[in-house]
Give the backbone structure.
Amino acid sequence: MDINSNSGFPPQSYSTAFNLRNEIKQYLMSKGLSKLKNGVLKVNSNSNKGAASKESWRSGCCVTGKRQCRKQHEDSSLLKFLALNALELSAPASDALLRSQQMQGSNQAWFQLSGHPDAFAPAGPGTIWKKCSGGDEKAVYEALAGEPELRGITPAYLRHVNYGSQSFIELQDLLYGFRDPNVMDVKLGTRTFLESEVENTVARHDLYLKMVGVDPDAPTEEEHNSQAVTKMRYMQFREQQSSTCSLGFRIEAMKFRGSPPVTDLKRVKSDEDVIDTMSLFLGGRGDVRQRLLARLTEIKNVLDQSVYFKKHEVVGSSILILYDDTKVGAWLIDFAKTREVPEDITLNHRVQWEPGNHEEGFLFGLDNLIKVLGKVPSKSTPPNVTPTKPLALKS
């Protein structure tokens, strides 16, 4: 693990869960139920034998006292429980823990709104692990920490973790402290792909099939004849299906309290549809709307003054919006596709993209998000009134 000894990690709230986890690991190993292999806790293949010995335990009840018998049964149940859940204790990003419905050490439900389903997992109270895949998001967060103003609009970065054969970064869990919040992920920018991703100009049949699967009339006559399109053509076509090209942002996903995430929103395109969806999300909470407008304006002003931002294209990043009965928050997230631009280029993030200029329309999208939010009607609605049909959106 790459941990700065002066970083104060782990925080006090994390230490109890962290130490308890290690104690349980040691207990499992002392009972022969698991072992360490390459730094990873593995469940022994014979760890389920406790279930097979259930009948032999019952036969012993005739000989031993009932109290001792009950104690043996409780010990056996505990050992089996720990053995079956040992993978959950070995790493926050294990598949077992990703299926968990509760954060360890907290009664607050944890969920992932969007993105790859195996990319995130809860770590300690108030932190999550994010899998590093391509790029160097670790370096981005370290650089963001160099500008105090940027630290206030992004998740706090705690450490980099090499675990087994995978790499993770531990970040502030932005949902921590909210009580069953309403959440929205808004992807910013008119371009959500890197220029390097579309350098290959060879037309591909698989991308043609994807295109006609969405809109059979989208390919040109030439593309129909060759039954192939380039990566550039397909990516731009895909972004034209939402408000990405016209407004510079799209609503990626959202969640209402007490309901599962709604992710089928990539076809929300027109100004009217975007306003309707945003209005549905806010549920008439005029107070939330005003506080959110102030927060987004603050983020825009910070980015306008940021030295780092002027020299980096920020592709595929989002604004995460949260609110509950009392709190409202918004932060920039997802920097896996943030790249430094050539030394002779300074970005303003509002100019139309042309290959080579590295503009991605990030601030163009944020400007429009603020404008759209300002058009959302507000009405007097009690804080505990929430939408009951979040899927009632225009297709």
In short: The two ends are 46 Å apart (CA to CA). The first helix runs from residue 12 to 30.
